[in-house]
Amino acid sequence: MLIRSYTGRSVAEALEKVRGDLGSGALIVETRPVREPGLFGRRTGYEVVAACDGAAPASSASRLAEAPAPRSGPHRADAYRLAESTAFQPPESADRRQTDPDRRRSDAGDRSASHQLADWSASANATTAELPPASAPPGDLNDELAAIRRQLARLARGQPAPHQHLGDLAEALAATELPEEIIAELDLTLDAAGDRVAPDRRHDLLSAALARRLDRWAAMDWNACRHLLMVGPTGIGKTTTIAKLAGELVLRQGRRVVLATLDTYRVGAQDQLKAYADLLDIPCVVAATPAQLGELLAAHAAADVVLIDTAGRNPADAARVHELRGFCRAVPGIQVCLAVAANAGRAEFAAVVERFSTLPIAHTVVTKLDECAAAGRLYGCLRRHRLNVRWFTTGQEVPTDIVAAEPMALARQVIGA
Ligand SMILES: Nc1nc2c(ncn2[C@@H]2O[C@H](COP(=O)(O)OP(=O)(O)O)[C@@H](O)[C@H]2O)c(=O)[nH]1
Ligand SMILES: [Mg+2]
Questions:
Q1: How far is the CA of 324 from the centre of ligand 1 (A)?
Q2: Nearest ligand by distance to the CA of 238
Q3: What is the DSSP secondary-structure string of 98-141?
Q4: What residues flank ligand 1, with Cβ below 6 Å?
Q5: Which of 158-172, 335-349, 394-408 comes out lowest in average pLDDT?
Q6: For position 43, what pLDDT does the model report?
Q7: Interior CA angle at 78 toward 77 and 82, to 5°?
Q8: Mutate to test the pocket of ligand 1, among 229, 240, 337 (most ligand atoms within 8 A of CB)
């Protein structure tokens, strides 16, 4: 299945491009406004993601990657969330709304979101009117728009989504702890696809819809990263990951690598890294201060990559995170990689991301995938925090247990494809 993204100043313009490129039998996977960055960013147009259920060309995977990265903005998952919001619920006592502080805080967001939905809905209706009937045979794009309008009408009435299109799969997805709003979004995807998606292609369509949302994942470009600082909570796998990366860089790619550690807190912490460095026959250095780190990096200017380990400390230790900012400032161009655990609960995951968010996180490694029993929960966390995932680690073996992050692989794991 070929999946492509089209943008236009209106839905109609984007749909015209779909029709021109994929023909009138294309399936509409998704329609959403494109906005400038930020929660309240100005709308700049619309994006329509369309799928063509023809013979998949050999390059279909790369076509998926070629699709422009989605910009921030509400999508169908947000539309479902709106069903729970005040904007679409039965009228509630104005007094209660006034006196509930949480409700007051969220009202601004609700209003904005409802306006956005209204924009979207109006645009979908306008599009139907603009489409020339002759070029829209039965079972074509108008069907998708009609399905979207039905869903919108249901949302406007505050009715919960029944997941009628997913059927039993909805339960299986819930068992992976995939967030409810994402399950609802997938149900809409099937609704929009209608009867024209063969049962044996449903899993592909849904996996592709999930994978598309992991828009910030990409392979690591080591030519653009000379100094990588690994941060994350204690015991999450930072040192082990550094050893795995060093193994890949030295043994497979033949690069000159230096290991460094800022971990001067724990007795023996440096020994672990030094042991890996000895195995690979590469230097291992220790820096106690930002100035020392600067000097060491200058002394190893000939290295292709310096991988810098940090102390395992309680993530709640804000002083330690603050200290790391000093190291970042001392090394222009240093890139920070956050290690998060695949088996973390939602709250724990959010706490780690929040704690380290004061650092300029450019990359993410997800550790302990082998210990993750809830792929849907992991997917939800990674998507929610919009992390730039580069690798997954899959076990304790150094250097083998690490793989490049691949959105479709996680999506398939969630869908069970
Ligand atoms: N199951 C599993 N264990 C891992 C993985 N990565 C690291 N570990 C283990 O997690 C423990 C802590 O790893 P370490 O690298 O010392 O964590 P650090 O404190 O963040 O540096 C060690 O026992 C590692 O072998 C992984 O991908 N899967
Ligand atoms: Mg360590």
A1: 21
A2: 1
A3: HH-HHHHHHHHHHHHHHHHHHHHHHHHHHHHHHS-GGG--TTSH
A4: 232, 234-240, 312, 367-368, 370-371, 393-396, 401
A5: 158-172
A6: 67
A7: 120
A8: 240
- pLDDT above 80 (res 103): no
Residues 157, 151 contacting (CB under 8 angstroms): no
Provide mean pLDDT across the span 28-52: 69
- Higher pLDDT among residues 19 and 105, named by residue: 19
Contact present, 303 and 276 (Cβ < 8 Å): no
Tokens of 269: 């912490």
Residue type at position 73 = G
Pocket test for ligand 1, best of 271, 274, 389, 396 (most atoms within 8 A of CB): 396
Domains assigned to the chain: 2-212 (no CATH), 222-415 (3.40.50.300)
Tell which residue, 99, 107, 35, 104, has the closest CA to residue 72: 35
Section 178-194 average pLDDT: 92
